[in-house]
């Protein structure tokens, strides 16, 4: 028994020592690897997330810029067109002068052509006159500068005359029409 | 010896078996972990790369958009301004008509004011007339429609008269000047 014990002892001791060592090695290895995997895995997820956000942002930027570009082109020339509107008013006013002299008739004919040309150019630039005469007064496109008493021909809240024409560039009001409203 | 051998055998066998097993376990573990780390590491690097490219693209897009936006605003109204230039030509032509009649003088005065107003509006929209009369012929801004013999007052390759004014919007030619050149 003593001998058997002695025989068993070294075997058992060696076995235990080796198992202990190898378990420690396994723990150490699996521990280190685990820590690395965890760190790299976190980084991988973080970069994936950042990448996906950046990709979404690129798409948003494209959408946003296409919209902005379309808007800029849609209202292209708004400033210069607005500043040219008085030219139209004044040409129209000049054309109300009555002339008889041959040269004056020639001049007037030239001015009429200019007026037509300018109207056409503005129409092609998507400028339209705001409907005013006889329509219901609309404060978003009409500016009431005078009121007259409503009667049978001029119902309350309708535009009875236009003092200065109003214009829109597409749906945007460049200048409201200055009107007289029945009240 | 036989007994000693028998005694040593089990110890050695157990030891070897355990070492073999634990080495296999270690190899297996380190192999698996290595493969995982490698895969995740590759993915991490790939996402990092994609993210960095996307971030650079976002910066490029911003630069590009800002440039394009500035360009669109810089040449805002180019189309409508170009289509309005004949109005300027025709007003100028109309103003060359001589009138004496009182009404005609009134009409002409009105047209002069319109002409001044339109010139001013175009100037404010950054439209400038191309210098032509007396300057050296420049094919980038002048269109030669006629030539005359050069003489002492009109050196070769200078513009001797302007048939139609040319205009620029900022540095961009809206319409070249139509000129007569000394040859």
From TrEMBL, chains A, B:
Q: Which UniProt keywords apply?
A: Chaperone, Coiled coil, Cytoplasm, Stress response
Among PROSITE patterns, the record links this protein to: GRPE
Q: Which residues form a coiled coil?
A: 37-64
* Location in the cell: Cytoplasm
Q: Which NCBIfam families match?
A: PRK14140.1, PRK14162.1
Assembly, in brief, is: Homodimer.
Tell me the protein family, please: Belongs to the GrpE family.
* Name this polypeptide is given: Protein GrpE
């Amino acid at each position: 028994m003593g001998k058997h014990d002695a025989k068993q002892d070294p075997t058992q001791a060696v076995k235990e020592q080796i198992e202990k060592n190898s378990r420690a090695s396994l723990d150490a290895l699996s521990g280190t690897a685990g820590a690395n995997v965890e760190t790299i895995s976190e980084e991988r997820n973080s970069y994936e997330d950042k990448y996906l956000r950046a990709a979404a942002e690129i798409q948003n930027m494209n959408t946003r810029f296409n919209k902005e570009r379309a808007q800029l082109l849609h209202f292209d020339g708004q400033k210069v067109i607005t500043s040219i509107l008085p030219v139209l008013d004044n040409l129209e006013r000049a054309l109300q002068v009555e002339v008889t002299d041959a040269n004056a008739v020639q001049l007037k004919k030239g001015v009429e052509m200019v007026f037509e040309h300018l109207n056409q150019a503005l129409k092609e630039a998507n400028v339209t006159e705001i409907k005013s005469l006889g329509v219901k007064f609309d404060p978003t496109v009409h500016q009431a500068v005078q009121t007259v008493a409503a009667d049978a021909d001029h119902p309350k809240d309708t535009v009875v005359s236009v003092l200065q024409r109003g214009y829109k560039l597409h749906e945007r009001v460049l200048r409201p029409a200055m009107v007289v409203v029945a009240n």
